[in-house]
Amino acid sequence: MAHAPNSRELPSELMSEIFANCKLTPGWEPDWYKRHAFLLELSRVCKSWAGPAQAMLFREVRFPENEEDGPEQGILPILNTFLDTMRRHRDRGTGLPLAVRSLALTLGLAPSYDYSAKQDVDAVGCPLVKLVNDIVADDLLGALYHLELSNQGGWIDFDKYKADPAKTHLAALTFDKPQLDKLRGAKRQIHALTLKIIEYDMPMFAQLITGFPALQYLDITGTEQVSFTDLGDTYGVEDVQNLAGLRELRVATGATAADFAARLGDYNHVEILHVKELANLAQLDGYRSRVTRLFINEWRQSGDTGSADEATLTRFPLLTNIFIAGQSNQRGQVQTIVKNSLRVNHIGAWFEATRLVSCKEMVKLFQELLPPNDAARPLITVGVYASAMPFYLHPDVPPAEELTQFKTERETEIEWFDELELIAIPEINLG
Predict the structure, then answer these.
(1) Percent of the chain with pLDDT over 90
(2) How far is CA 231 from CA 29, 206, 222, 268, in A?
(3) Is residue 375 classed exposed, middle or buried when 0-12, 13-18 and 19+ CB atoms within 10 A define those classes?
């Protein structure tokens, strides 16, 4: 005889939604560091809670980057244990491997501060061939969306490393044709890629960039001295047509952005561009006609305005959102971009939580950034982006006189947005 279902048991989808919206503590300052421990405790309450809580725990998997975070022998033993666990769950049909949406690995360098430790780097880091075969090409993590790869694990003397005869083979390490073709033909494709690499591994990582034909998001802000020239005859690096689907690009410098645009050529369809350090707006010429969202952390020079080509340099015809770091001193350039880009309808200022300014200073910032009110253009909204809400924007706090005056004059309010709106990877809610 069949038993009626327990009315107190909720569907796992609903439990996941509840867990995702749980607040650890009331107040304005979120405690993200306790999130993992909190979900771990939820997974141990009962069997019906275990599945949804474990799925959220495994949504973002990060492996230790150095000996302070993990064992001295490196991540490979931990990675093997993780992969074996995922295979067992897949064979049992638990669905846990499908919960992994983001995976971060350290490659290539031993995560050790002691260069004298004569460890084989290939045995300590995560070989890329293993990455291709076990994680991507064999579809073990069938819902993996984002992959982060770093070879910056631990401090090391790079000159000694490259001069060591036992390790020089790594300087020329690349995928051969069968390996790269296997990656490109994988059933499940990576859509978001983050690379944190050092220069001499550039050919290998340039292959990776073109090796994911479904790539939509690329973050190379943590990559130093990037150049896509002088890659020789490395197989696959010229297949830039595979990057035609790229929509969001994050780079460290304007020079890298310009180099990448030149490499993409007619396949450049980037709509969202983040630049950490920009020397001048001419470096963004390759993106001007398509970009809709632009984030510039810092201008190193201030030579854009006042030139004969000012209107051309500062015009982004499709731009709707522009963001700057709150401490940026190049407010004049931002205002000029807004003035000449007639579709802009949102200006955002990003702040580190410890560097939030006072209400008066915040109002002054946006007053300087906004152009005069113009009935011919859309209303421009403004936002403060930070991990914590400024107390003077909290709904329970009476609005300051400066905010009331700003709202009256500009017909808009200053709103707070979680910084994840800017820094999070699209399609993955890792909060």
Answers:
(1) 18
(2) 47, 9, 20, 20
(3) exposed
The DSSP bridge pattern shows strands 248-253 and 217-219 to be: parallel
Alpha-carbon gap, residue 287 to 271, rounded angstroms: 8
CB 399 within 8 A of CB 390: no
How many Å is the Cα radius of gyration of the chain? 24
Residue with tokens 């709904």: 395
The least confident of 82-96, 110-124, 129-143, 413-427 is 110-124
Strand order in the sheet with 381-386: 60-62, 102-106, 146-150, 192-196, 217-219, 248-253, 272-278, 293-299, 321-325, 346-350, 381-386, 414-418
Residue 80 to residue 157: CA distance in whole angstroms? 28
Would you say 226 and 256 are in contact if contact means Cβ atoms under 8 Å apart? yes
3-state secondary structure of 268: coil
Q: What is the DSSP letter of 139?
A: -
Higher per-residue confidence, 82 vs 287: 287
**Conformational region of residue 50, where left means phi above 0, alpha means psi within -120 to 50, and beta covers everything else:** alpha
3-class secondary-structure state, position 121 = helix
Please give the single-letter amino acid code of residue 181.
D
Q: Residue 299: which H helix or E strand, with range? A: strand 293-299
pLDDT tens per residue, range 400-420: 999 999 999 888 999 999 887
- Can you read off the two tokens belonging to residue 386? 């930070």
DSSP 184-201: HT-SSPP-EEEEE--GGG
Strand partners, 117: none
Angle at 21 between CA 19 and CA 26, to 5 degrees: 115
In the chain, the N- to C-terminal Cα span, in Å, equals 44
Contact between residue 385 and residue 421 where contact means Cβ atoms under 8 Å apart? yes
Q: How are the residues of the chain apportioned to helix, strand and coil, as percentages rounded to the nearest 5? A: 40, 15, 45
Element (H, E) at 296: strand 293-299
218 confidence band (pLDDT: 50, 70, 90): very high
Whether residue 224 contacts residue 200, with contact meaning beta carbons closer than 8 Å, is answered with: no
Q: Minimal CA–CA distance to 378: which of 347, 349, 406?
A: 347
Question: What φ, ψ does residue 45 adopt, rounded to 5°?
Answer: -70, -55
